[in-house]
Amino acid sequence: MQVLRTAAERGHVQAGWLDSHHTFSFGHYHDPAWMGWGPLRVINEDRVAPGAGFPPHGHANMEIISYVLEGGLAHRDDKGGEGVLGPGELQWMGAGHGIEHSEFNASKDVPVHFLQIWIQPDRVNAPPAHAQQAFDPQARRGRWAVLASPDGAGGSLAIRQQAWLHGVQLGAGESVVFALKPDRRYWLHLAQGTAEVDGRALSAGDAIGYVDESGELRIEGVGEAVADVLLFDLPV
Questions:
Q1: pLDDT given at position 111
Q2: Contacts for 234 with CB less than 8 Å, ≥ 6 apart
Q3: Of the candidates 97, 52, 59, which has an alpha carbon nearest to the alpha carbon of residue 77?
Q4: What is the Cα–Cα distance from 219 to 202, expressed in whole angstroms?
Q5: What is the pLDDT of residue 198?
Q6: Do 124 and 164 belong to one domain?
Q7: What pLDDT is stored for residue 103 in this prediction?
């Protein structure tokens, strides 16, 4: 089964300093048909105005990944984790039994554009933890790179779930394939640019979910902008 989720169909919240699009139900946006995809619970595309952000707030028992597309995102938590994420960088925060953190635009002049991703963990009440990793865009230009995994292999972020996050960037005419397995589920999210997935045209913010599917998935970059593709490999 394949399910298309277009960018235009997502929930949209605009509140002054925040412009956010929700792939799945989140906060004031609730749609019982879109509560998540397996353990993938949240993909929010956020644009935060200069100098603004989310003040300290708490989370528990959730794996939270932030991926900056443009600008800089400043993170600080009550367990000593802090840092500024730039474009192409990812941060993992394992909320575990409880953590409080803040996220602010690191700039007073330009907006920050990023994805916030939540994945339900495969265990509860683990110790909170934090990690940050920069990935060279050229290392995933035209080929898959593992950005997050259960064991942190190859310099990926280690997360507490039997899930993998793969990323690739494709210019026009560049393509990759990915072998789908029927005992896994997948979520493909186009973060930036335009691409064709098995001949289907996708624009930034569009996504396709796969469950009980097998065979090769072919993704090709089209247009002038480089396509930034995220593929979540998830347990059923």
A1: 97
A2: 37, 38, 39, 40, 163, 184, 185, 186, 187
A3: 59
A4: 10
A5: 96
A6: no
A7: 92
- Cα separation of 83 and 132, whole Å? 8
- If asked whether residues 122 and 184 sit together in one domain, one would say no
Spatial CA neighbour of 233 closest among 131, 145, 149: 149
Q: How many Cβ atoms sit within 10 Å of the Cβ of residue 69? A: 18
Within 10 A of 142 (CB to CB), how many other CB atoms are there?
14
* Residues recorded for the chain: 236
Query: How many distinct structural domains can be found in the chain?
Result: 2
CB 75 within 8 A of CB 85: yes
Instruction: State pLDDT tens for residues 61-103.
Output: 999 999 999 999 999 888 878 889 999 899 999 999 999 989 9
Which range marks the domain in which residue 203 is found? 140-235
- List, for residues 169-214, the tens digit of each pLDDT value: 999 999 999 999 999 999 999 999 999 999 999 999 999 999 999 9
- Read off the amino acid at residue 138: Q
Q: What is the pLDDT of residue 79?
A: 81
pTM over the 0.85 mark = yes
Tell me: do 23 and 130 sit in the same domain.
yes
Identify the pLDDT of residue 20.
97
Q: What is the distance between the alpha carbons of residues 199 and 218, in angstroms, rounded to a whole number?
A: 8
pLDDT, average across residues 113-124: 97
